Amino acid sequence: MYNPAKNRQYYISLGICPVCKKQKPEQGYKLCKSCRERLNDSNRKSRAKHRIEYNQKMRERRAVIYEYRVVHGICTRCGKAPAVEGHRTCRACHPMFKSDRVGFRINAAQGICYQCGEPSIDGMRLCRRHYRLLTGKEYDD
Questions:
Q1: What angle do CA 53, 4, 8 make, to 5 degrees?
Q2: Mean pLDDT of the chain
């Protein structure tokens, strides 16, 4: 009887690409280069086609993980250590997270782009370059 999982394992054990069943994959890979490229192109097109749905699913998934960590008293940032009492992050993540926010506010108050440290556009937190990269348009004075 035909069993795709067993056939795949069989070809992998022989050192042959289980997709095309012709070429040998490079060391450290299970698929040959041409099959990997085809698969990557297909995945890239699929992700681009369904990006909005995928992003929504990931947002929902992250929200579930966040809630789980809050309920169980685990650090919401790393998910490994217990959270400090009165906070949602562990001892290792809390100072780091706090310093990120403080640095962001200091840079904004000094008129420095929070991305690169270059002078920012008046009244904004970004320089012209990062404004263009993040919004897709030029800043008009």
A1: 95
A2: 85
